[in-house]
Amino acid sequence: VDTFYGLAKYPDGSYVNKMHFDYWQGGYHFIFLGTDTVPAGFTHAVLSEETLQWFDAKLDENKGTGKPTFVFLHQPMYNTVAGSRPGEDYSGVEANTEARLREILADHPEVMMFNGHTHWTMNSEANIREGTQDLPGTIFNTSSAGYLWTTYDNASGDYLYGSEGYYLRMYGGTLYVMGYDFVADKWISAAQYCIKLSNCNICTDADFDHNCDVCGAYVGVHEALEKSHNCAYCGQTASECADENDDHLCDVCNKKLTDCADRDKDGVCDVCNAELEQPSEPSEPVEPEQPSEPSEPVEPEQPNEPSEPVEPEQPSGPSKPVEPEQPSEPVEPEPEPPNPIEEKGGCRGVVGGIGVIPLALAVCIFTKFRKKE
To answer: What angle do CA 2, 4, 7 make, to 5 degrees?
Structure first.
């Protein structure tokens, strides 16, 4: 149950919070039923009276409109489709619950019920149960997308490899239910059904509202033009922009929906995984340089008065060659005069020679000094 709540969503993307719920999409009513309790070792669906009353009221919302109501319950009722018949013993609705279900469904022929649980292949007998008086709706065996079961030569079934499902289409008051083999990638010829939903031979829709003007059956499906979200039939919006392939563009109209973003700052776009350039860290702002105060204007230098031209120096004539100086003849030293002292000899000569002149000089100086007195 917790796993179911973690996966099941409404068309708007919100999670389902209970086992039974419903919604409208494209003008059709979809109702989902699930067991209210899960007894140990018990795989049958058990629906409370409260759930069954809710189901009955939901079916009344679409009664008499000419449109089918699609009902989904995992387990089939006894002896309705393949796997639930006698001897196969794969029915799965608790007895009291089944009695009330049959009572409610007896008043709703517009119901198209789809059951699984048995995994019986779509090529089996009783793949579809057409309406009867007690159960006027139509019941389909949905086989399984996981693995298959077959009763080819064994009433209780044998394992069969495969994966199967349905495609549904509405047009002109007719419901087309088409079985498909997903492994072989082809249609299952034994599981192609056309169910007429109105008494009109040909439904007409003069006002293009997808409803027959006579019986009210749904006419045409919302199918958008190529690369457009508008229905080719009525012109209304048939789909919204979506980007399933994560390339920032709408898968239908190629409109740009988002820009690259890197919220986790790992250098990769969170949507398309493209590598992004890392933004450089902003540098500190540089303060603008303050303009300097204007200096006083400098007076232009006055040009000097032109000086008188200097006459070029006249080149001097060639000088006469200087004759080399002739070497002088050696000068013979003059003979020294004879020394009178030496000639006189003895001390007398010395006293006479050096004492006479100083004495005469002293007499002369003394005489001049006396005259001045």
So the answer is: 110
Q: What pTM, to 2 d.p., does this model score?
A: 0.56
Name the nearest CA neighbour of 4 among 43, 50, 35: 35
User: Is residue 156 left, alpha or beta, with left meaning phi > 0 and alpha meaning psi from -120 to 50?
Assistant: alpha
Q: In what order do the strands lie in the sheet with 164-171?
A: 164-171, 174-181, 186-196
Residue bearing tokens 């009433």 = 155
Which 8-state DSSP code applies to residue 158?
E
What pLDDT digit, counting tens, does each position of 129-168 carry? 999 989 999 999 999 999 998 876 777 778 899 999 999 9
- Beta strands 148-150; 158-160: pairing state: antiparallel
The three-state DSSP-derived secondary structure of 166-193 is EEEEEECCEEEEEEEECCCCEEEEEEEE
d(CA 91, CA 117) in angstroms, rounded, equals: 8
Q: At what angle do helices 95-105 and 49-60 cross, to 10 degrees?
A: 20
Q: Which residue has the tokens 């990769």?
A: 268
Positive or negative: CA dihedral 284, 285, 286, 287: negative
Structure tokens given for 251: 């898968």
Query: What local confidence, expressed as pLDDT, does residue 312 receive?
Result: 58
Classify 255 as helix, strand or coil.
coil
Residue 191 to residue 188: CA distance in whole angstroms: 5
The long-range contacts involving 62-67, CB below 8 angstroms and separated by at least 24 positions, are 62/29, 62/110, 63/108, 63/110, 65/110, 65/216, 66/110, 66/173, 66/197, 66/198, 66/211, 66/212, 66/215, 66/216, 66/217, 66/218, 67/27, 67/28, 67/29, 67/110, 67/197, 67/216, 67/217, 67/218
Q: How confident is the model at residue 303 (pLDDT cuts 50, 70, 90)?
A: low
What is the percent of the chain with per-residue pLDDT over 70, rounded to a whole number? Answer: 67
pLDDT of residue 167: 96
